[in-house]
Fold this protein.
Amino acid sequence: MAGLDPVHRDFFAGGAGDERTVHANETAFDRLRLLPRVLRATGVPDPRLTLFGTVLPGPVLIAPTAFHRLAHPDGETATAHAARDTGTVMTVSMAATTPIEKIAGTGARLWFQLYPQPDRDFTAHLAGRAAAAGVTALVVTVDSPVFGRRERDLRNGFLDLPSGLACENLRDPVTGRVRDIVLDPSLGWDDVLRLRAVTRLPILVKGVLHPADAAEAVARGLDGVIVSNHGGRQLDGAVASIDALPAVAEAVRGRVPVLLDGGVRRGTDVVTALARGATAVLIGRPVIWGLAAGGRDGVATVLRRLHEDVVRVMALCGAATLAELTPDLLREVRP
Ligand SMILES: Cc1cc2nc3c(=O)[nH]c(=O)nc-3n(C[C@H](O)[C@H](O)[C@H](O)COP(=O)(O)O)c2cc1C
Ligand SMILES: O=C(O)C(=O)c1ccccc1
């Protein structure tokens, strides 16, 4: 195995500023301890859930991450094969280095993430292209009016993909050239809602931390909320995802699914997030590390181990189903 180029490792691992939020996403779980129930005769727990009408084998999905071909030559195709092998959903990044049609050829369940582009026609084209390829939901990332200041990348001079790799889904249908991703500080709710007119797919907003924004998303008829600080890569100093979750779940009141990403590494983290009100979780970096270490099989191993761990932790907590993961199973302790 070639191993990751240290510059690319920094791109994947790193975050904004002092990486306080990167760190906080993981350490915030340390303050939350489980209060297990006993003698509940659960048998083997059932970790399945239904999301947008589809039964998934468990509550762990793949978060959108850019540039998989920097981690492994098979790139997003390998990740998608692993998603297919395990039955989970892969959220394909707008910054994928493989065309969505090729990723869809694996037969995996896919969602597609996008940043609405100032060129509205191109955004509509992209949503239509993803839908035509067979994705079953759109994820609109709303925490990126500008790029976070990623100091590792600045130090390393990592600015762009090496030649031979490109954001294949940004190919202009007319010119055939790959467009640059434009982050748009003028983006508003109306820009997200414009996607409603071009697709019947469920639309989730990703990157919500404030409960008022979650309430707004529901009020505007969006289909799901992803509590996320972009893995600490955007606003350094933003609250850890798991700490933003309770207020968001309270604001949403079960009207739409509330997903969470950021710092989820173990079955205990998954169970903690669900007990705090998440419907499901997504993982970002663990997928990249599995991909870099072993391609399709590496990602499948990460997904399978986490899945098995979730089932074990459910059993140890006395929970037969995900619905039994409730806030009474948690205690907050002093660090
Ligand atoms: C290398 C990398 C690339 C990412 N690219 C995207 C992206 O293209 N679009 C997006 O919405 N989020 C992106 N994210 C954020 C992830 O979707 C997710 O929010 C985050 O990785 C979750 O935290 P975790 O890595 O601690 O699991 C990226 C994260 C990483 C680490
Ligand atoms: O790295 C990221 O977090 C990210 O979102 C991204 C988006 C577009 C291109 C490269 C990275």
Q: What stands out?
A: The two ends are 39 Å apart (CA to CA). The domain at 6-325 is CATH 3.20.20.70 (TIM Barrel). Residues 12, 25, 63-66, 93-95, 113, 141, 206, 228, 230-231, 233, 261-264, 283-285 surround flavin mononucleotide (ligand 1) (CB under 6 Å).
